[in-house]
Amino acid sequence: MDTVEEEFVEIPIPIPSSTSSSSMAKRPCPSQNPRMELENLLYQFLSLSDRPSLSLDLSFENLLQSMPPDTDLIDRALKMGSLLLDAAKHSSRKRASNHNSIVWPLPPDLTFKIFSMLDTQSLCYVSAACSFFSKCAKDPLCYENLDLTTLVPKVNNAVVATMIQRAGKALRSLKLGVVPATACSPGFCQPMVSTIRKAIVEAPNFSWNDKRSRQGRESSVLTRCCLSPLSGDGGAPGALLRKLHLYNIERMDSTSLCGALSACPSLLDLEIVGIHVELRQTLMSVSANCHLIERLFFESSRTGRDDSLKAQTCSELVNNCPNLTSLSLRGFKLHDCKGFRKLKYVDFSSSYSITGNFLRNLGNCNGGNLLEVLILRDCMHLKEMEVIRFLTAILAGDFKLLMHLDISNREGLACEADWYHRCYSSNNMPIKQVLEARPDMRLVAEYPSEGSYAETFDAEMNSDISLQFSSPTSDGSIFMSTSESSYNSDHGSGNEEGQDAVIYGESSDEDNNMNL
Question: Hey, which bits of 118-181 come out as E strands?
C-alpha cells in the first residue's frame, strides 16, 4: 500500500496597505529602525489570526517536525502568547480608560470633590472599578478624612502608610482600629473596649473558617509603628490633622502614641479607647503638643487601675489647652481635679476615686455657666452629700446651661462618713424640685434596690464587667459600653428586676443622640 507523504503548505503573508510603495516612501526602511521592523513583523504575525485554526496548527506541527527533538520552540510559543495576551489586556484597559475619560460628564475638580465625600471603603471600591476612576481616586483630597476602623482586624501598617501617603498634607481626620460591631448602634449599652480575639468571635456575618484564619494573623494586626507615617515627609501628614480616633490597638504603647501626638500640633479632637497607655504621660503629651485641642475622650482599657494622674498634670492641661470644652476620662482612678471651668461636656464615668468635691469648684467664681452635660455614672466614691450640694446649687441658679445630668450608680452613692456604706434611694435629693425649676433638663438617677450591693469589696479586682456611658462622638451620636472593671463586686447589682431605677425628665429619641 502506497503511503501519501504530507505536503507542507506555505501560508502567504498579506502585506498591509501601510507598507505599500506610496506609504513606504514616507517611512524609513525597517532595517534602519528596529522598532518599526518589530511593529511590521507583529502586524504580519497578527494577520494570521484570520486564518483557520487548523491551518495554524498544521503549520506549527510541521515546523516542530523540522526542528531538532530538543527544541524549545513550544516554550517560546507559550511565552510569546502570554506576552501578547498581557499586552492586549493592557491596551484594552488603556483604551477603556480613555473612553471613560471622554464620556465621563463631570470635570476633574468636581469628580475629585465627589470622591472626597465617599467613605474610605467606598473610595477603594470606586478605585478598583476602572483605570480612570483609579487615577481620580488618587487625588489627595479624596483621602482628607480616613476611616480605617473595622469590625475585625483587616488593616495593617502597610495599608495605613499607603493611605496617609496618598493624603499627604491634605489629611484632616484619621480613625483607626477595631470597633466592635455592637458599638455601632447608638442608644444601646454596647462595648467599645474590646480585644482582637473578642472582636473576631463576635463579628456578624463572619464564617467560622474566616474567624479561624484571622485569629493571630500578623498581617492584619496594627503594631506600635502604625502612626509613624504621620511624622514622615517632614511631618506634613500630621501637621494639619484635626481629628484622631484610635480604638483597641493592643500593641500601641505610650511612647509610640506620644510620638504621634508630637506630630499633630493642629489636633482638635482626640479619642482613645482600649489602648494600653498611661493616662498621665498621654495628657502631658497633649498639653505639650496639642494646644488647640477642643475635645478629649479617653477610655481606659483596664478600668480603675491607672492612678497616674496628678494635680500638676491637670493644671498643665488646663493652662496649655485653653480651648478644651469637652473632657471624658472614663474608667480611670481620678482625684477631684480643679480648674476645668470652661468645659461644656464632662464625663468621668466609672472613676474610682472621685468624690464630687470638684463640683463645688465648678459652681464658684462664675464657674459652671458653660456646662451642658455632666455624666458621673458609676463613680464608686461619689458621695451622696456632694450630689445634694450640686443639685442645691442648680436650684440656686447655677449651671443654667446644664441640659443633661447623670448621677446613676449601680452600687449606690457613698455615705459622707464611710464610702463602704451606700445610699440606694434618691429620696434625700431635691430631684423633684430641680425638675420643677428646670423642666428642660434631663436628669438620670438609677440606683439598685437596698441590699443588692455586695459588701465583699476586697475581691473588687477580680471582676470583669462595668457599665459605662460614653460621651457623644464628634458626629453627635452616643455610644454606651461595657468594659473591664476593677471595682465591680456584684454582677447582679445593675439595672435588674427589683431595682429602684428612675430616669427623670424628657425621654425622647433626641436624648439618645445629643448633638453638642
Answer: 145-150, 173-178
Cell numbers for 469, please give them: 456611658
In this structure, what C-alpha cell is assigned to residue 286? 497633649
Q: Are 471 and 375 in contact (CB under 8 A)?
A: yes
Rounded Cα gap, residues 430 and 427, in angstroms: 8
Cα 20 versus chain centre, distance:
64
Query: Where do we find the cell 464620556?
Result: 103
Give the pLDDT band of residue 368 (cuts 50, 70, 90): low
Q: In the chain, pLDDT over 90 holds for what percent of residues? A: 28
In this structure, which amino acid lies at residue 425?
S
Beta strand residue intervals within 396-435, DSSP E: 404-406, 413-414, 422-423
Contact 407, 387 (CB under 8 A): yes
Residue 243 near residue 220 (C-beta atoms within 8 A)? no
Under the phi-then-psi rule, with left for phi > 0, alpha for psi from -120 to 50, and beta for the rest, what region is 230?
alpha
Three cell numbers at 460?
A: 473588687
The predicted-structure confidence for 84-96, as pLDDT tens digits, reads as follows: 888 888 887 777 7
From the list 200, 184, 183, the residue with the least C-alpha distance to 192 is 183
Using alpha carbons, select from 173, 190, 310 the residue that is nearest to residue 245.
Answer: 173
251: pLDDT strictly greater than 60: yes
Q: In the chain, what's the furthest Cα-to-Cα distance? A: 126
CA dihedral sign of residues 159, 163, 168, 173? negative
Q: What is the pTM of this model?
A: 0.67
Average pLDDT over the chain, rounded to an integer: 74
Range in 155-164, 167-176, 214-223, 462-471 the model is least confident about: 462-471
Residue 288 has pLDDT above 80, yes or no: yes
